[in-house]
Amino acid sequence: MFAFDDEQFLDGYRRRFGPLNDQLAQALRFLIGRIEQDASFTQNPVHRNQIAYCLATFKWETAHTLRPIDEFGDDARFNRLYGPDTRVGKMLGNTKAGDGARFHGRGYVQLTGRANYDRAGKLLGIDLLSKPEDAKKPEVAYAIALEGMKKGWFTGKKLDNYFKSGQLPNYEEARRIINGQDKAQTIADIARRFDELLLNALE
To answer: Where is the Glycoside hydrolase family 19 catalytic domain (predicted)?
Structure first.
């Protein structure tokens, strides 16, 4: 398991990304704390690269807040995009009127659709169908994002496909874990900065 010096990490964040307000500092402390408790991460460079990529993804997907967010839009937009009568809605397993809004994207990465909420809830042992808003709770959102990226819930691609022992981290291609190659280079650059932060903050 990893152990980091929080203050050194936050100081490094300021140098590489800019000023920190209290909310952002709190969000980073929460994430570092969760990572330190995550027994699936051992102190080796591959796992550090994976953590850096997860943090970069969270930063991008949450509009740089590093806090779980709702997908941008209102209920009318979500039902129009993801309703059970739409192609995307059918792919997402939405079967009832209102499912588009009820199961809109939430979290560090956007968990979207009845089928995905059902699967994530069952795998985590919680009822996200009855309480989909729980997907935005930081501890739940962290578990969904990490398990999803480790196990390929989102696109079938997972962290181990791009971060392997004896190989350079493939930050650019790792975007396929979440969303094809959209903004792949931008997120890869963020991940490299996070990797430096993590390395320098190791205790």
So the answer is: 77-146
Helix (H) or strand (E) holding 107: strand 106-107
Vertex 24 angle, CA 15 and 70, to 5°: 130
pTM (2 decimals)?
A: 0.94
If asked whether residues 64 and 74 sit together in one domain, one would say no
CA angle 169, 171, 175 (to 5 degrees): 140
Q: Is residue 145 a part of any domain in this protein?
A: no
- Domain, as residue range, for 60: 6-68+150-201
Please state the separation of Cα 36 from the chain's center in Å: 16
For the record, the structure tokens of 112 come out as: 């979207």
Percentage above 90 pLDDT, the chain: 95
Question: Residue 24's pLDDT is what?
Answer: 97
Query: What's the pLDDT score for residue 60?
Result: 97
Residue 1 has pLDDT above 90, yes or no: no
The one-letter amino acid at 81? L
CATH number of the domain where residue 113 is located: 3.30.20
Q: How do 69-70 and 106-107 pair as beta strands? A: antiparallel
Query: What single-letter amino acid sits at 124?
Result: L
- Tell me the residue length of the chain: 203
